[in-house]
Amino acid sequence: MPEQVSRLLIRGAQYDEIETDPTIYTTSNPRPPPVLEDPPPFEHMGGLLLNLKHVLGTTLKSPEQIDVTARIKKIAETVQKICHKSVDCALGAPSVETQTSYIVVHQMMGAVLTELIGQGKGLDAGQRLSLMCAALTRDLGQIALQPELDKHPGYLPEDLLTVMRQHPEQSAKLLEQAGVTDPIWLDAVRSHHEYLDGSGYPARLKGDEISLGARILSVCDRYSAMIKMRPYRAEAYFPQNALKEIYLKKDTEIDEEIARILISKVGLLSPGTVVKLKSGELAVVKSPTVKSDAAIVYSIYGKAGTILSPPTRRDTSQPGSEIIGLVPLSHCQNAAVSIRQVWAE
């Protein structure tokens, strides 16, 4: 299948087209090297998630086996390219991903958001790359603890909370032990849970003591955590509700300008949001948008509740196709294949 071929190519596989090429090659006319095209952006993101999962796991167990800095940078560079090619796919792929573990998808979404906000802040490509590397690895020290955290729907027990609050520093130490030396990367990881009013952790930094990179990661971390389903939380926040909660924390815990940039980049109806249309159909938002009557949506369930494959474009400004509500992604698991087709290219 094309998706499986794409994932094999991402991992370095090659194939020989000699059986379908009638040309006779000689020493004076050698066969040209194969040209491997990148898979479509949406599918490429799926491969990157698998790659990130492998790199994070290896970094924890045997970092000496790989060049962690180079591998994470390669993933970050590829995400930058995908963001340039298709913001819709970059935001949509992690938003609708349900098969990969939460903490891996959470960090990938954070990297995408970090790139988009970094662009909005006017940071150069090198600075954005360092911060994306930080976003991809910020919870490295929490991975082993995540199964225990997922058992608690409310406030954590004091002893578990104490351990959890050590994960930014632990993540930075693990990265240093794996050979990471980039100061922007390491600082952002250490301080991504520091808040402007000094209520964060682990160092209780305040105001200007917190770097721009750490402020960006803090906002991205919050948003990504809220919109993804968790084992203890049956439903995730709708993106617009998550944005509202973030904005309410402006200038107390988070940077107001960064919050505004986030809203402008993901929209109140962000890619992957499932909406109910007046006709009774359920549709998926493809592109970031603010106004519901201008949203680009594709119906995945028809009026009778049958799955539409391929999904069908609807004009939300037209009678019958108006958006009248939001639907949790968890209610549409049977339509996963159709949902992925929304971003097919």
Write down how many β-strands occur, each being a DSSP E stretch of 2 or more residues: 5
Mean pLDDT: 89
Radius of gyration from the alpha-carbon trace, in angstroms: 21 Å
Please describe the biggest sheet, giving its number of strands, its sense, and whether it closes into a barrel.
5 strands, antiparallel
Shape: globular
Classification by helices and strands: alpha+beta
Given the structure, what is the number of helices? Answer: 14
User: Looking at this structure, what is the CATH superfamily of the largest domain?
Assistant: Hypothetical protein af1432
Point out poorly predicted stretches. Answer: 15-20
Q: How do the strands of the widest beta sheet line up side by side?
A: 4-3-2-1-5
Question: What level of helicity do the residues show?
Answer: 40-55%
H/E topology pattern: HHHHHHHHHHHHHEEEEEH
The termini sit apart by: 15 Å
CATH architecture annotation of the largest domain? Orthogonal Bundle
The CATH topology of the largest domain, please? Hypothetical protein af1432
Number of domains: 2
CATH class of the largest domain: Mainly Alpha
SSE layout:
Blueprint: H1 2-10, H2 41-61, H3 68-85, H4 87-96, H5 102-120, H6 125-137, H7 146-149, H8 158-164, H9 167-177, H10 183-191, H11 212-227, H12 239-248, H13 256-266, E1 274-277, E2 282-285, E3 296-301, E4 307-315, E5 323-327, H14 336-341
Antiparallel strand pairs: 1-2, 1-5, 2-3, 3-4
